[in-house]
User: What shape does this take?
Amino acid sequence: MLRKAIVATLALSAACAPDSQAPVKVQALVLNSNGAYAPREVELTTISDIVKMEGVVAKMIGGARIRSDSQDPQVQNAQTAEAYAKAIIKGDGRDVTASYITQDGVLWPADFHTWNLVTAYYNFERAYDYFNKVANIPAADLGEPATVYYFPEFTLVDSSPEALKDNALYFSPIQAFMVLPFDTLQKAPLALNAGVMSHEYAHRIFNQKVYGGNPLPYQIAVWGQSPSSPGANLVKALDEGLADYHGFGTTCDSPVGCDTRYFRTSFDDRLSESRDLAKADRCMDTVLLNDLNTLNVSAFDPYKLGSIIASALYQAGQSTGQHKALQRALVAAYSDETSGNPGLAQLSRIAQNDQLIFNRTSVSAVLVNHITDTPLKTAVCNELIDHLQIPAAELVGPGLPCPPEAQGGTTCAPINP
Ligand SMILES: [Zn+2]
Assistant: This one.
């Protein structure tokens, strides 16, 4: 019922057709220094249709139905990633219709969904800008406008017959974002949360570069077929940790400035605390190390290890004052065909038939090898050796990636690997 009501709202909105030429001045809901989301005049610089919410960065689609069910004959018969995507998109959806009131040359959203859509688009633009300008990915490599399913009915039947709510995600099998309807979420809708939306956008970049744009990457699909899948577990944790760090990076260009706790405006204290990048005492411990090495990817929690990686990177960027250089180096490390300096995509390829090759040490080496500045390199080495509990001798020494001054830190109590 909820879905029908929303579709009706979107369809009935009076479609005035304001000037769509970018840049468009529009009001969006942006976090202010009092911790509130308040109307703020912003410019959408990439929008080509302000009513359909479509532009270089994203294209919003309303009313889609996406249903993943392993018992669905169409899903079972799908032989390719493309066929699988077709099998789970049960309803294509349609253009959204945003509605505005024009005041002094500025568009004011005329209904709640338009506020939500405009702000979501604005947040995708911020994430796009960050990956283009800070992470240095050329516009041509950022790909086609991202498909964003707005308030779709999204069901993962194997987990629950109920459609999912209260989330925003990048769903790689269909290479698209979803902004799901609300249900019980009491705080700021995720579409408004610039850090969260950038976290999701970072997953798209990771998919494009580390997974080569594969909707069903072998690092998950094939490595994950082993009862223990340490490579798949690590790559998922890395994807989450890097997404948290890039989400933080995007907040630095917002009116509020760098925000290590950007989850707090949408999530409860416990989750916000567990994802706060500034929390410096997260360490690999024996239980987590055992989980990483022995669990299957379907049972492994990628967020715990991800947040250790994220805060280790944050500490290194913070102590050297070089977040932007680090963010750029990390993205450069996603994929690199230079001989002798593999990226994560190339390391995965080397490890394709033996996922044990994709491990804490080899991954850290790939990241460190893409940092040029020696103090930053040393700081990253120290944090990773310390927080991931990597024996220093595996990274520091003649012919190894870490400078001799790197010896690890003292935050984490050593564990026996
Ligand atoms: Zn994520």
Notes: Residues 199, 203, 240, 243 surround zinc ion (CB under 6 Å). The first helix runs from residue 2 to 12.
